[in-house]
Amino acid sequence: MTEITVTPLGAGQDVGRSCILLSIGGKNIMLDCGMHMGYNDERRFPDFTYVTKEGRLTQHLDCVIISHFHLDHCGALPYMSEMVGYDGPIYMTHPTKAICPILLEDYRKITVERKGETNFFTSEMIKTCMKKVIAVNLHQTMQVDDEMEIKAYYAGHVLGAAMFHIKVGQQSVVYTGDYNMTPDRHLGAAWIDKCRPDLLITESTYATTIRDSKRCRERDFLKKVHNCVDKGGKVLIPVFALGRAQELCILLETYWDRMNLKVPVYFSLGLTEKANHYYKLFITWTSQKIKKTFVERNMFEFKHIKPFDRAYIDNPGPMVVFATPGMLHAGLSLQVFKRWAPNEKNMVIMPGYCVAGTVGHKILNGVRKLEMENKQMLDVKLAVEYMSFSAHADAKGIMQLISQCEPRNVLLVHGEAVKMEFLKTKIKQEFSIGCFMPANGETAVMETKHNIPVDISLSLLKRESAKVGLLPPDAKRPRVLHGALVMKGSKLQLIDAADALQDFGLAEHQLRFTSTLAFDEEGPTTETADKIYQLVKSQLKDFPTHYSSDGSITISDSVLVQVSGDEESKSVLVSWSYQDEDVGSYLLQLLKSELVT
Amino acid sequence: MIDEADDWLFDSIALYQNLYMYDLQHGITAMDWIDDKNVCIATSSGSKHELAELHLPDKLLKASQEKAGLIKNRDFHMNAGCYCPHRVACLKHVPNSRTIATCPDTEACKIQFWKLGTDDTDVIRNISTVENTHSKGSPAHITPVPGTENLVFGSHLDNLCTVDSNTGQVSCTGCQRSERISSMDFTDSNTLICCCQETGELVTFDLREDLTKVKQEHTNNISLDQKCFWTSTVTEFGVLKLSSTGEVRRVEKHNWSTDVGRWNTELNLLSDFSNLTINALPRNEDTVYISGFDSNVYIFNLPMLSSMGSQTDHQVSKPVFKHEGHMQNARMDTQAKLLTTVTHILHPLQHDLVLSAATDGSLHAWQFNDCTDK
């Protein structure tokens, strides 16, 4: 037996950041390197002293794997690699590699330049860190070193989100990151092979929830927009260019068309340029619907949605504007917000998460008076609506993924501690597998069976298959083979014992077990032998039995029964070779119970 | 290009005040309110059966509608759950307690009590099982006795039992009649009313006396060849009965002798009557919710009795609203004929808020928009 150990440094009974240390087959892997968005001191980063108290992390880690670009999964990466010290490989998918530095830089600007915090990574550090990244394609087996390989699978959470299958020797682990089992307008559903890993490390943020359907969230979004413009209001939708902006634009375009609405809808130009560029690169990562739309036309060629000009801000009458950035911390979205905020007829719909310190975060927390630059106060009278389109697996999704990949153990991370006992019981009962839920800093240890691959000689296979007929053996049913285990070079081989003896120049020795049963029984010995023969035929039906003219009985290849004695007492000799130990011992017990008592 | 699914979604914006759709791992077999914020459901995969207490999404609760825009929680949260040995046919919450009672869908007529989760655990615990000594091979119905922690359960008129949910102490009696019951409820703190499944007759008992004595019998006038299934619901003013041929009949509390109104809904069901459910909107009993005929929940406005004059028979009534969400959002592989609504319940305080469940595991929470021109 060998162990797999998992220590969450940031996830595990705590929602906020993901960073998990995995030890498998002597390799140490860091799964995600997230930042806790609720803290603004050193607690926002994972506690890397669990890996090493001093020195660089490179000596202790074989690689880092990042599941997707959200900051609670990659936000501490530059801190870890450049400030703590790590020079080894960092694996992520191509879209994650492209989008991750943009988000890190945005966050750095908010934290350092706006909030004036120190002890934070610099722009240069982000660039240096990203140079250590090795991008992977979906389903591409990537050899990390001689012993370890990784493979990415589609996770359907955000553009580029992936689950990773990590294999070291005979052991393997799947790490899901955040994933979603229900396809939507933007992305497909997560999918993985039936790879039967020793351990599945799955997110469980929504493990005890039943998620509202995405379609209802879309419906609410449209209803809010329509109600507002119907009353003559203006709607601002701050979006992240590479998030779900395209999805919302397509939705609104379809609705406008269906309802024959004439109210102008605009998007900011910066948004389209960036989005078109990335969608050209990563179109294969999106849903069928987006792929189809993109083939027909450019991503932002809409009938109803037109490019925005700053001069339109004060246009009279209703309108809808998609503008970047999504957290209202700078740029066009903030400019539009400042102009529209004092009018209660207007509305802002926040479709995503906002980090602390941004205007978006403040208004989502109910702040109605904002201090802007030059100490000017802004009255927020417009309606503020929160609409999350995040795609996470709920209780049903987790069970679906477990049945898809059939792991031997499951480890739940990214959830709350006390209220997951039933889910744990359910996983254990429904799949008859182990289920673990370690807290931060607590190590979960999983024992795994260590299989040793062995080559089998053709002659041995032929001999064994001849015993059960000409059909090929059922690959899923284990069978016992008798042979000699030999080591040739670094490989193990199971060969026919006779071949092994010949190879090593050894003489064959037979090991036989013999036992004699003595008992009183009247009548000739042939009568006793007949009785034994009938017993053997009825109890050992599947074994070839031969009754010789001299009164001896042979069963299988090597089991021999001979009866001797006189009219009053008998001796029965039972003898068998080591290879037929099972049938020999069984027969001896059978004769004891039937004849001696 | 507009998808068909999008069509319904876009139309739903005008049709519903609120619409939330959920997809459970397995289909719901029974459900009941714990209070105005929590609901208990029983689900079954065929081989595995579960109970779960779910907390309603904050977005749905009226108290929070003022700041609804900033409320993030649109999901049901599972407070507690457990496996149970059999598919649950009937589930009732014992009022003012953390106990629920279930009847298994087995030949043995029995009631099981379960303690819902606590602060320390999210596991629902089985506390006791009480057998009905006069089991007649059918699962029981349950109804709580108002103002007590007792319940009445039984499958037929001659095997009704009163059981104390705390002690499990049971008192089984039964009247001379032996019809199978389709539903039962209390019209006041002492009067138990049972609806006979095949005849639609209503039989009442006074709990202050024993259950061997029938207090009143209401004969349901049906023709001899009219073979159908009847169920009922108790309202503030009387009882509404629903037949599998889609007929709704009203009986008033103080006039058990005859039906005061009959409406034909044009719905009809030929087999599997087990899911037929009727509910009336409290304080507006002219609005009835009906499900179990197909994949829809129907809302009918029954013409006011006063407007009908002396005419009580066969007023045809078309639905004022039809919740088609279960079929419209069903997976592509779901066959229309196989999808049926299992049950629906009305929120105890926000009466127009409906929870409806279908055989495919869908659970919808919705309020239709009665201001729109449909």
From TrEMBL, chain A:
One of its GO terms (molecular function) is RNA endonuclease activity. It is found in: Cytoplasm; Nucleus. InterPro entries: Beta_Casp (IPR022712), INTS11-like_MBL-fold (IPR041897), IntS11_C (IPR048662), MBL (IPR050698), Metallo-B-lactamas (IPR001279), RibonucZ/Hydroxyglut_hydro (IPR036866), RMMBL (IPR011108). Pfam families: Beta-Casp, IntS11_C, Lactamase_B_6, RMMBL. GO terms for cellular component: cytoplasm; nucleus. Its cofactor is Zn(2+). Keywords: Cytoplasm, Hydrolase, Metal-binding, Nucleus, Zinc. Residues 16-210 form the Metallo-beta-lactamase domain. One of its GO terms (biological process) is snRNA processing. The keyword Zinc applies. Its main location: cytoplasm. CDD domains: INTS11-like_MBL-fold (cd16291). Residues 245-363 form the Beta-Casp domain. Belongs to the metallo-beta-lactamase superfamily. RNA-metabolizing metallo-beta-lactamase-like family. INTS11 subfamily. This is Integrator complex subunit 11. It comes from Mizuhopecten yessoensis. The lineage of its organism: Eukaryota, Metazoa, Spiralia, Lophotrochozoa, Mollusca.
TrEMBL record, chain B:
Transmembrane segments: none annotated. SUPFAM superfamilies: WD40 repeat-like. GO terms for cellular component: cytosol; spindle pole. InterPro entries: WD40/YVTN_repeat-like_dom_sf, WD40_repeat_dom_sf, Wdr73. GO terms for biological process: cytoplasmic microtubule organization. This is WD repeat-containing protein 73.
